[in-house]
Amino acid sequence: MKLVTIVCEAHARDAVTRLLRQVGAHGWTLFPVEGDGSQGRRPADIPEFANIQVEAVVKPEVAERLLGTLGSEYFPRYAMIAFESDVRVLRSGKF
Amino acid sequence: MKLVTIVCEAHARDAVTRLLRQVGAHGWTLFPVEGDGSQGRRPADIPEFANIQVEAVVKPEVAERLLGTLGSEYFPRYAMIAFESDVRVLRSGKF
Amino acid sequence: MKLVTIVCEAHARDAVTRLLRQVGAHGWTLFPVEGDGSQGRRPADIPEFANIQVEAVVKPEVAERLLGTLGSEYFPRYAMIAFESDVRVLRSGKF
Amino acid sequence: MEILDAIRANLLSPAVLFFALGLIAALAKSDLKFPEPLYTGLTIYLLVAIGFKGGVAINEAGLGKVWLPACAAMLLGALIPLWTYPVLRFGGKIAAVDAAAIAAHYGSVSAVTFIAATNYLKAINQPFENYATAFLAVMESPAILVGVVLGKLATKKSGDDSFTSLKTATHEALFGRSIFLLVGTLVVGALCGEAGMKKVEPFFVTPFQGVLALFLLEMGIVAGRRLGDLRKVGPFLLAFGIVVPLVNGVVGVWLGRATGLGLGGATLLGVLSASASYIAAPAAIRMALPDANPTLYLTSSLAITFPFNITLGIPIYLEVARWLYS
Amino acid sequence: MEILDAIRANLLSPAVLFFALGLIAALAKSDLKFPEPLYTGLTIYLLVAIGFKGGVAINEAGLGKVWLPACAAMLLGALIPLWTYPVLRFGGKIAAVDAAAIAAHYGSVSAVTFIAATNYLKAINQPFENYATAFLAVMESPAILVGVVLGKLATKKSGDDSFTSLKTATHEALFGRSIFLLVGTLVVGALCGEAGMKKVEPFFVTPFQGVLALFLLEMGIVAGRRLGDLRKVGPFLLAFGIVVPLVNGVVGVWLGRATGLGLGGATLLGVLSASASYIAAPAAIRMALPDANPTLYLTSSLAITFPFNITLGIPIYLEVARWLYS
Amino acid sequence: MEILDAIRANLLSPAVLFFALGLIAALAKSDLKFPEPLYTGLTIYLLVAIGFKGGVAINEAGLGKVWLPACAAMLLGALIPLWTYPVLRFGGKIAAVDAAAIAAHYGSVSAVTFIAATNYLKAINQPFENYATAFLAVMESPAILVGVVLGKLATKKSGDDSFTSLKTATHEALFGRSIFLLVGTLVVGALCGEAGMKKVEPFFVTPFQGVLALFLLEMGIVAGRRLGDLRKVGPFLLAFGIVVPLVNGVVGVWLGRATGLGLGGATLLGVLSASASYIAAPAAIRMALPDANPTLYLTSSLAITFPFNITLGIPIYLEVARWLYS
Ligand SMILES: Nc1ncnc2c1ncn2[C@@H]1O[C@H](COP(=O)(O)O)[C@@H](O)[C@H]1O
Ligand SMILES: Nc1ncnc2c1ncn2[C@@H]1O[C@H](COP(=O)(O)O)[C@@H](O)[C@H]1O
Ligand SMILES: Nc1ncnc2c1ncn2[C@@H]1O[C@H](COP(=O)(O)O)[C@@H](O)[C@H]1O
Ligand code: NA
Ligand code: NA
Ligand code: NA
After folding, report:
1. Of all atoms in ligand 3, which is nearest to the CA of residue C80?
2. Is ipTM strictly over 0.85?
């Protein structure tokens, strides 16, 4: 299985979770984070201007689709990074 | 070393940290998260009904024991997912 | 690319983010966490006494430098752990 | 039609209307929600304020007046699961462990329902014994322990495991956040008395009603999210969540009168007896009886009984008391 | 020199000085910042308090007095983007989608600016219609929707995608947190009336000014962080962020008078018309027009117009009203 | 036996009893704890309220009265580390860097202890100079800088590194959250004066004592967690944590009298001198002297000196003042 991690501006939240469903993720985990990057510091004091980190455990092919769409549709528009890593899950059936 | 990540309902917190000690983890890191999965949305506004993410860096054999018990004892009872990945640690002695 | 994860006492925050810039990381993500380890429980109720988790996606050579300095300069002084894992990123140019 | 007026008055109070607004927010899928620390902060404030006030009241009334009804309340809490369990098990054909879990919730109490009741009485100028908070404090745990034991007997687990979880449940039931805050601030209030109250009144008493209204807004959201599960729990639990409170409410009022409480105090004991826990009990039960299905006990206590009590229940229990005391 | 005295009085009020302190904290790179839940809690408190108060006022004044100016306010909000868009597009040579986004922000409103204005009027004992909150509630969404449509026309996207995002924008604009809280508590307040107000006044009214001051401290920090971006937006937006509010402010005051509001109410309508949204609009626009550059609309509304309004704007709009009404 | 009565009165105040309740919660391993944002929100409120009040007081008294005792307070803060360092180093055989770190903590101040003292004086109707907050503001940093320099001299690090960390320490000591809030709100208060105070009084003054009581509940939990470390620090630091405050307290009271403060103000200067920092100092020291062992300075300041001062210390320093002034 693949763990896809997305760190992005909070305003992208709905767009990202919608995309996750579309590409076939069965769930996600999300939490607010603070960050620094090419677009400057993002302190986590105002929810609307903060960052969120979204994690989704998905099948490799889903990860492909997900990262693909993120790269083409989302990166040009939102402050975001995304990366993928290999994980061994329990009950792989559910993902 | 293995990094074991567990996302589960907050009520499982004590049970999970107890288990971590039992199987021989020397520490853990924990934070509240919001999530969506087969058992529906879990917004993070009421601590008792929220999710937590628990991370533990452990030896491979400890990870085995941990995931084993989680699968047999915990999954049937709690809303939870767990996965394992390879990490390279500093001071591997302490884990 | 490498994902370097650091969990440390909040007081090390500035020192760690400064180091990240020095060794050449282009960004970082940070959030408060609760933890348990060799130096005892660290509940997350007082920011000054809490833990933070810092994540940075960096080039392998940067990860080397980072972990090296952490091991020699920071571990003796701060309550902290650090580990590295392999990740596949989008837009690897930006890291 | 006094009762109808009383109900209308209650329905038009800010507290209840804010609760309704929360329900609507949840149903309209608005992104409105309180951050967890705000929710926790409000609960701490409400528990500390009510506990401290109760302690000051005990300091004035003297333990002599409090102990008898307090013991009665405790006993009542422990007994309720014993009669609700069979009803659920055989009347509702509900699995043993689930029946035990639900029974524990209805024997335990809801602090927010109690607080809403005190507000309601204050609003209609019905005097009541402020030390009734002591009953709230002693009624939370017993039922949980009884319910856990019932559940353990039903589901014979590996001794050790069940032992640990019974132990955790006991610790949770006795040292859990809410219990600790209530009992602790009761004692603090009893030690301070009026002198101490003067200092903190502008923070713990004056704005109290407004804070409660704001808190009920969030409670409405939380309860509203569970409304979807009503289908899952079936008609029996639906009826159970309304009939049992009414029965327990009457018993509580009667017991209050029998142990020498005034009309207001008896009403509050009725409210406590009728209320079902949805925070302390779920936390303890989830640990001690992880095999019980949370949807059943959470939905019935949070989405059925809690809304019923703060809208219709409270005025009804008061009417019952009025009738008993006339 | 009345106007100068009015401005000095405003600049020396705790609210404005706390805002200035926040600006300094941001510029001095102090590590001072409010935790997110505290910020959110304060916004919830301010919106609920102002909404409930407004509702009670409607309950007293009666809808008959409110509907006409309310509709006018709504219309005004919808029209502002239609004249600011061309100004930005052709006057400022700003890209279509960015012009649409900025126009939406200036048609929409800033609740905090409105609240600061009511505080200012109270401080100088200038009576005003408390139900003006209703105008705040109805002016937030229309401009956002108009702006989004303008942006969509400019950037023809794949039907489906643009459809979803237009839908999300509408939902966001109508059920977003702030709108929902304002409209909801307005209704609750209207249902409760004075009787309900009595209960919650010590929490929602008495400490209100102090809470606002504390909140403006954080707003100062947030606005201060954006000051660095002033260079990026260029002189045109700088002028735009000050001139447009002045124009809209005068139009708003005039419209208030034309629809029968008193001096205070007209001033508040002027403030609303002059204010630019920096929370609700960015959230909706970011979803519906993700191609618009946030630096442009956030910097102009948050770092230019907002500080201008709460320091100089508010007293000026009042003077305009005084002059119109004399 | 006046002193004993004074102490009993203090021990039975809500503030101290809530602190005790927090200690018990920590020892009983209750899961009670405040969410971080609630803790941070309460500190911000307390610092802003006390700072603003102090500023208004300065506005009334005039700088003329304040500057002399303020400079004296600052000097005192800078000198305390110079005499405590050798005591720790040679009396206690404590490593140089640790001795420097601890000395810095005792030269700096604890805002909460100061606030508790003002509350105590208010409770017993002992008038005091409200501008004493200015002393709190100026005493926090100097000792930290002196302590850091002492530590640097002891541990000769690579120039550059030590330079950065000395720089960070200075920045932290001068622009850290608490300092910034105190100084900033002092200035704001001084600019607003009574007129501004009227507006925010219901929020920043009226509920203040209650908020402090709630905050001390959390402080009790935090301090209670450190009680376990008492074994680790050894008898010398235990004695140090009680004797040094007594000595510094007397010196502070005497200095207050020498610089023309009244009985109340002198008591507060004594309290400041006796108190040890456990938030600002640890933050700065951890960055500037990372080799110092936090267990030593945190345990002594947080688990020994802080509880001692708010229970016994404050009434004692008042008695000392009474005796000096009679
Ligand atoms: N190299 C990195 N490692 C970890 N997080 C990053 C990195 N770069 C960016 N981020 C996160 O992604 C957010 C947006 O990145 P950016 O668009 O570069 O500003 C930042 O605020 C960080 O939270
Ligand atoms: N595929 C997934 N990726 C990431 N997190 C997940 C996934 N599935 C479930 N979760 C998390 O695990 C929690 C419980 O999962 P579930 O039992 O499926 O509801 C959810 O609330 C999420 O926080
Ligand atoms: N084995 C582990 N797995 C995950 N996190 C750990 C582990 N050990 C320590 N930590 C985290 O690192 C912090 C400091 O570790 P320590 O210095 O061992 O107390 C702890 O508070 C935990 O948050
Ligand atoms: Na009950
Ligand atoms: Na506007
Ligand atoms: Na001191």
Report:
1. 14
2. yes
